[in-house]
Amino acid sequence: MLTIRYPTLNDADALLAFEIDNRAYFEHWINARPADYYSLDAVRAAIAAAQADIAKDRAYPYLVCSGDAIVGRVNLVDVTRPYFNRATLGYRIGQAFAGQGYASRAVALALEAATGDLRLSRIEAVVRPQNAGSTRVLERNGFRAFGRATRCMYFQGEWHDLIHYERHLHAPPPPPP
Fold first, then answer.
1. Considering the domain boundaries, does residue 74 fall inside one?
2. 3-class secondary structure for 128-156?
3. Is Acetylation found in the keyword set (predicted)?
4. Residue 149: inside a domain, yes or no?
5. Residue 174: predicted pLDDT
6. CATH no. for residue 91?
7. Full-prediction pTM beyond 0.90?
8. How far, in Å, CA of 26 to CA of 45, rounded?
9. Which whole-number Å values give the CA distances from 166 to 119, 135, 152, 176, in the listed order?
10. What is the C-alpha to C-alpha distance for residues 161 and 71, in angstroms, rounded to an integer?
11. Is the peptide bond before 172 cis (omega within 30 degrees of 0)?
12. Closest Cα partner for 70 from 44, 34, 96, 108?
């Protein structure tokens, strides 16, 4: 069974192993993390920063787990309140789990959290046009494309376009600030 949950410091060893094991695979799709990220101290610092972001309603980073194993990450970042109640979605699934529906399910779970406790009403995402897998994940989860930004992301020595996606959740508005 696939679940999502917030990371804790107890996850540091497993999260570091996950990131190291999938480093080359992820760098095929997204910009590389700095080399010094791949240490236990750096991962612990990233988890502490994630916990601070959650406490301040700035971002909601989740681990995607199958049983006790970390198989991916799904994040709701750039939370904007009180008037927009929106966030940006990002996700990554480990190479060994790609193509098995894990990304689609992880995104669905993040959308459930966004609609429920987080009370977000709009989620946005971007994807490079050549990333057909991510396009399918978003479309299966009810996202629709609403625009294209040209030559806006520098990746692997070239400028790339991004397709912008959105999903309206119709969550109840949060209480006034």
1. yes
2. CCCCHHHHHHHHHCCCEEEEEEEEEEEEC
3. no
4. no
5. 59
6. 3.40.630.30
7. yes
8. 21
9. 16, 12, 18, 24
10. 28
11. no
12. 96
Q: How far apart, in whole angstroms, are the C-alpha atoms of residue 14 and residue 100?
A: 21
The C-alpha R_g of the chain, in whole angstroms, comes to 16
Domain count, the chain: 1
Q: How far is CA 173 from CA 66, 82, 85, 167, in A?
A: 32, 9, 8, 16
* Nearest residue to 86 via CA among 163, 174, 147, 6: 174
| Whole-angstrom distance, CA of residue 126 vs CA of residue 148 | 9
Q: Tokens 């977000």 correspond to what residue?
A: 120
Residue 159 lies in a domain: no
| Domain ranges, residue 114 | 2-123
Q: Provide the token pair at 136.
A: 């399918």
Residue 126 has which token pair? 């971007």
171 inside domain: no
pLDDT of residue 170: 76
pLDDT along the chain (177 residues), means of 10: 97 98 89 90 98 98 97 98 94 96 97 94 95 95 95 86 94 59
* Two structure tokens written together for 77: 């970042």
Q: What is the DSSP letter of 100?
A: T
From start to end of 43-143, where are the E strands? 60-66, 69-80, 86-93, 122-127
Query: Is-contact 120 169, C-beta < 8 A?
Result: yes
The predicted structure's pLDDT at residue 156: 82
pLDDT of residue 74: 99
